Amino acid sequence: MFPIEYVSHSRLELFRKNPVVYRKTYIDKVVERDASPAMILGSLVHAMLLEPETVDQKFVVAPVCDRRTKAGKETWDNFKASLAEGVEVITHDDVEQANRMIAAIAENSSSQYFNSPTIVKEKEILTQIEFDGEPLPVKFIPDMYCPEKGFLVDLKTVSSYDPLDWAKDCVFNGYLRQMALYRFCLRSMQIPINDVYHIVVDKGEYPSCMIAQFDSSDIDRAENQVFDGMRKFLNAHQTGVFVPEYYGVVPKITAPAWSWR
User: Fold this and answer.
1) Are 165 and 209 in contact (CB under 8 A)?
2) CA distances (Å), 45 to each of 59, 103, 111, 260, in order?
3) What CATH number is attached to the domain comprising 227?
4) What is the tens place of the pLDDT at every residue in 203-218?
5) The total number of structural domains that make up the chain
6) Residue 37 domain-assigned?
7) From CA 66, how far away is CA 75, in angstroms rounded?
8) Distance (Å, rounded) from C-alpha 170 to C-alpha 26?
9) Structural domain of 141
């Protein structure tokens, strides 16, 4: 058996970016990763669109008060003391922005394809896949998938939804690897996934939405990256060595083709 509780996309990606930070976060547990305002807004949009019934349990709007004054400070302290554990604090501006972003998604007629009564939304899945001849537990939460239509969908909130910017984001942030892992796991559960989509909505003052689909060959190549990353991840757990690959070497770097467009 592998010496881990489970594998997840977020753990694989953190390990890929920096094995030292991964160890400090998940093994030594001396680093806490707080959500940024952008991450909280993204979570709010996800909840409002995919799980509207959970919004009141997950988020609370902060009171409008001047914390520089005695009364404002008292109001804020009372508000913070009343918060339940795990609840995210948002502002009225956050709610308005999230509503604009959801409206932008609805205005894109292509999004109607995902309004299926058989769609599964935000379901946490813990499954086992066979990896190098051994069972490996994987935990993941697909935003949406539909066995009937055979599609998998992920919702992303971005700063720019220009197709070239989005393609770069997918590579830099591991979004292709995320969908490759989810597709593989769902298929291993005998759930047919043929098409993979992203609903991409920007966080600008006047948001726009794009429905993007990568070629299946790109997802296949990302799947190979996932498996390669898993082997390095599991080897680090087995050996206890969490060091970036480039330590002690001088990598030769070539700028990607899109740098010169």
Assistant:
1) no
2) 11, 11, 15, 35
3) 3.90.320.10
4) 988 999 999 998 889 9
5) 1
6) yes
7) 9
8) 24
9) 9-238
